[in-house]
Amino acid sequence: QLQLVESGGGLVQPGGSLRLSCTASGFKFDYFTIGWFRQAPGKEREGVSCISHTGGSTNYADSVKGRFTISRDNAKNTVYLQMNSLKPEDTAVYYCAAAVVLTTVQAMCVLGKSNYWGQGTQVTVSS
């Protein structure tokens, strides 16, 4: 059974850091482009960052460039999102998604093309 499980969310003060993890099972992980999306209350879902199946190509939303870093460990079937200098506007439910290998990081992050989704983890940035 295919699964994507997010972890690492929580409450953090502005300027703080969190690392999200997305662990996959039930499919050939290194055949898939993986992305992080977020959705805040009353807003549309936004592509935050995406990484190609080898890790050689990445994409970031303008709002997180220079603050967030995506990486993957195919041996552990896990993708990470290191989030630094967090701002209140980063508050959202963060979702992990997987797209078949022919999906580019741009197509996934910008157009939202994805085949599978996780359940999400809440990130709250507040003092």
Topology summary:
Layout: E1 3-7, E2 10-12, E3 18-25, E4 32-39, E5 46-51, E6 58-60, E7 68-73, E8 78-83, E9 92-100, H1 105-111, E10 116-117, E11 121-125
Parallel strand pairs: 2-11
Antiparallel strand pairs: 1-3, 3-8, 4-5, 4-9, 5-6, 7-8, 9-10, 9-11
| Unreliable sequence segments | none
What percentage of the residues does DSSP assign to strands (E)?
A: over 45%
The strand count comes to: 11
Structural class designation: mainly beta
Alpha-carbon distance between the two ends: 40 Å
Q: If helices are DSSP runs of H or I spanning 4 or more residues, what is the number of helices?
A: 1
Share of helix among residues?
A: under 10%
Which keywords apply here?
single chain; 127 residues; mainly beta; 7-stranded mixed sheet; 11 strands; 6% helix; globular
